[in-house]
Amino acid sequence: MSEHTSSRPDPVVSATDLLEHDLEHEQVVVANDPASGLRAIIAIHSTALGPALGGTRFHPYPSTAAALADVLALSRGMSYKASLAGLDLGGGKAVIIGDPATQKTEALLRAYGRFVESLGGRYITACDVGTYSEDMDLVARECSHVTGRTEAHGGAGDSSVLTAYGVFCGLRAAAESVWGDADPGAVLAGRTVGVAGVGKVGRHLVRHLVDAGAHVVITDVSPAAVARVRDEHPTVRVVESTEALVAGELDVYAPCALGGALTDTVVGELTARIVCGAANNQLAHPGVEKLVEDRGIVYAPDYVVNAGGLIQVADEFEGFNFERAKGQAARIYDTTRLVLERAKSDGVPTATAADRMAEQRMLEVGRLRGIWLR
Question: Is 344 annotated in the active site?
Answer without folding.
Answer: no
